[in-house]
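=== RUN LOG ===
request id: a7f3
mode: sequence -> structure
chains: 1
length: 204
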Amino acid sequence: MKMIDHLTRTHRELTDGTRKTVVLRRHYDAEVEDVWQACTDADRLSRWFLPISGDLRLGGKYQLEGNAGGEILRCEPPSLLKVSWLFGPDPGFSEVEVRLAAKDGGTLFELTHTAEPPEEFWAQYGPGAVGVGWDLALLGLGLHLSGGEKVEEATFHLTDEGRAYITGSAASWGEAYRAAGAPDDVAAAMVAALTAFYAPEEGS
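=== RESULT ===
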């Protein structure tokens, strides 16, 4: 499967209120138990996402290397995982929930991220602020489940395929933003800001 096919397999939604909720949903050609282990086993997480440390059980605290940390709020193998998702000195409310269900010989994967981002941050990057990052994560999971190599995010945007994936992700979040009621000019400005952030030109 080409990387861009991973992008088009994902459905994206946005609920825009005081709390912003982004939803990503796609099908993986893997058993639910395999997808669950890939999302919850520390060794496997490091192979497609990020190294993780902490007390990885219900009520325990976790920390992703160089990224978010928080508490494991719900853990119902192999179908539901919910965590607080805190990053930075003043993160505010932020939770991520992953639901898995057997479907069509594989797994329906749904990720919901609900947060209260700073207004100025949302004004610039909108739902793509987390959406593009989650698109990259879902790509990594898909490659991992199919035996592929891990995406190196630091250099991914310098490849033709990587740049096409990132710009396609930004455009898809622009469409989701419009569907949630954002004016065309606001959505277009967000797409431009996302592309510049996630896929800067070499040397910039």
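=== NOTES ===
The chain has one domain: 3-198.
The helical segments are 3-8, 32-40, 42-48, 119-125, 128-145, 153-156, 160-179, 184-198.
=== END ===
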